[in-house]
């Protein structure tokens, strides 16, 4: 039997602190914590020291708390967050209800980003970086040592760009969208050029190519890079996206939220996974056979990178889409065959499908990019998704991303240590 909802209160009535606490099922001091977090409004009692609270507002908060408590109790302890951005189900994923693969293969990265942010398609969308932001970001990135990782460069560029934006604390939708449309091209412009092409205009995929590859791109290669960017824009609540939402919940500005995401993707199980797959694929290409390479990986106790995904029992749709586009690049054929060899060899013992990290590795190896290129592609692409989630979180009550710790230490009080 479901718990019955309490009878509705008189909408014109104002509650005392004690009454509000009883309705919410919390201590009086917690009521004031709700006020400090912006979850409740209060009014001082005329001539007194206490506060009163709008009955309808308290009742609405009590209903919301009950719903969230009920939702959390049956979720196995996992945090669930309402989102309208991305849905993953049945080995497919959708951006705002539209098949993400269809969007990625038919539109530019910029157009897909706009769809994710606004729910509107803006054909021909372009992102332009302000000269001042680019200048300060490049200066900051230029101070880093040569061995700095891509995410190091992007984090520093993000922080530098924030300092050049006096409006960064404006969290209105228009302001955050303005930040998104300038931050992403600023991050690309802050990266050092790899070849002769010094392009800082045109489609973002072409600008990013000049930072990843020494040779000039052909149309098929640019299409593959653009598709990879669009496929990777978002993937529900990945670890880095959750970090972004926590930052946004605390009302950190968009640059700080993106910086939080960049801090998480550097892990080998997230954004850096494509680099491991790149090195594995290169070893297979060098030896001409995946069997000894996979044997060495397993002997060393390492998992085979680029295979399997816990959200997809079958094939990762991002990998399938990117492999299809890469088939149009003649130079990619050896890497595609090597990737297929890896999957088939591993499948003898574990039926794992290729994931997007292996597809990214095919792109980076066949185009002569460094092992870190996949991580750069991932970070630049995912920035658009992080902005979408930050925008969504700014519309929620602040500080809601605050799980309670389950203390397992010594029972207090303990004596002072000597």
Task: Describe the structure in your own words.
This protein is mostly helical. 54% of the residues lie in helices and 5% in strands. It contains 18 helices and 6 strands. The strands form 2 sheets. The protein has a 3-stranded antiparallel sheet. It has a 3-stranded antiparallel sheet with strand order 4-5-6. A hairpin with a 2-residue loop joins β4 (86-89) and β5 (92-95). The longest helix has 22 residues, at 373-394. Mean pLDDT is 90; it is low at 1-7 and 72-77.
What does the secondary structure layout of this molecule look like, with pairings?
Blueprint: E1 14-16, H1 17-24, H2 28-36, E2 43-44, E3 51-54, H3 55-73, E4 86-89, E5 92-95, E6 98-99, H4 100-106, H5 109-118, H6 131-142, H7 150-163, H8 173-190, H9 204-212, H10 219-231, H11 239-249, H12 254-265, H13 273-287, H14 290-299, H15 317-326, H16 333-347, H17 356-366, H18 373-394
Antiparallel strand pairs: 1-3, 2-3, 4-5, 5-6
Helix pairs in contact: 1-2, 4-10, 5-10, 5-18, 6-7, 6-8, 7-8, 7-12, 8-18, 9-10, 10-15, 10-18, 11-12, 11-18, 12-18, 13-14, 13-16, 13-17, 15-17, 16-17
Features:
418 residues; mainly alpha; three-stranded antiparallel beta sheet; 6 strands; globular; disordered N terminus
